Amino acid sequence: MDPQSIQSIVEEVLQQLGQKQPTLQPNQIPIAVSGRHVHLSEQHLAVLFGESYALKKKNDLSQPNQFAAEETVILSGPRGTIERVRVLGPSRNLTQVEVSQTDAFKLGVKPPIRQSGDIKGSSPVTIIGPKGSVYLTEGLIIAQAHIHMSPDDADRFQVKDGQYVQVTTGTERPITFGRVLIRVSPSYRLEMHIDTDEANAGFIRTGQIGELIIAGQAAPSPSPVMVQEVKHASTVFEGKLLTQHDVQQSAESVIQVRKSTIVTPLAKDTARDLSKKIEVIDK
Ligand SMILES: [Zn+2]
User: Fold this and answer.
1) Which of 103, 108, 97, 86 is CA-nearest to residue 138?
2) Dist. CA 90 → ligand 1 center (Å)
């Protein structure tokens, strides 16, 4: 075995030892917050940092082979600039810049929400490095919230690559993400990625846990027929998901939910603590 292979195995083992995996319930997913960052093509890396420049690894990212580089760039838009924007490695085929909506306001652009890699028709941006600058006519996006997972995880959650699901958080300011993209690859490690605006909205920090709600359990659309069928519609909780917050807010001592409504473990615990009953009704 050559010294480099040994080195990489040692690094991998050390990394695994250092990673304290939280014990996850079957529907739980660890969340990581992505700060603004830039992926560079080889060509743009050369323009910004010089010919044959190699990025220096600052630290590994959670997804295998991805790393944060020592290098940073400046982003410039019609309204302002943002300094010290982290470059991620390794180089990609296309240069792509991922920012939050707050960043976009500062730059003075209106990027679309996109899956990574889908940059056609996205916003223009100027990237400034120590050796030169690049004007991109497109390449600036706000990243779609997504979950990386292995095929085994996908089987376990019964989801497919490209599917959208909901994820709810049990944070101090609980929120539910309504459109989270599933991305499946043998090289992925289970983790949900959100941007800093999304994290701030929900008081979420990297390492916190979200609960996955499988898509396709749409709330019944209100129709006159439905209302006639259910006599005491006002007392039935109609949401797709009953959370701790819902239980706390409910004025009812018996909270009626439909069969299709998912009750989170925290909601159950809270109901017990508050001596409320959660009753599943068939209709
Ligand atoms: Zn990601």
Assistant:
1) 97
2) 14
What topology is assigned to 146-213 in CATH?
Barwin-like endoglucanases (2.40.40)
Tens digit of each residue's pLDDT (9 = 90 or more) over 49-73: 999 999 999 999 989 899 999 999 9
CA of residue 68 relative to chain centroid, distance: 18
Q: How far apart are CA 242 and CA 247, in angstroms?
A: 7
228 CA to middle of ligand 1, Å? 46
> Using CA atoms, how far apart are residues 279 and 275, in angstroms rounded to an integer?
13
User: Is the per-residue pLDDT at 16 higher than 90?
Assistant: no
Domain with CATH 2.40.40.20 in the chain: 146-213
Residue located via tokens 């797709």: 240
CA of 127 to the centre of ligand 1 (A): 22
Residue 40 CA, ligand 1 centroid: distance in Å: 16
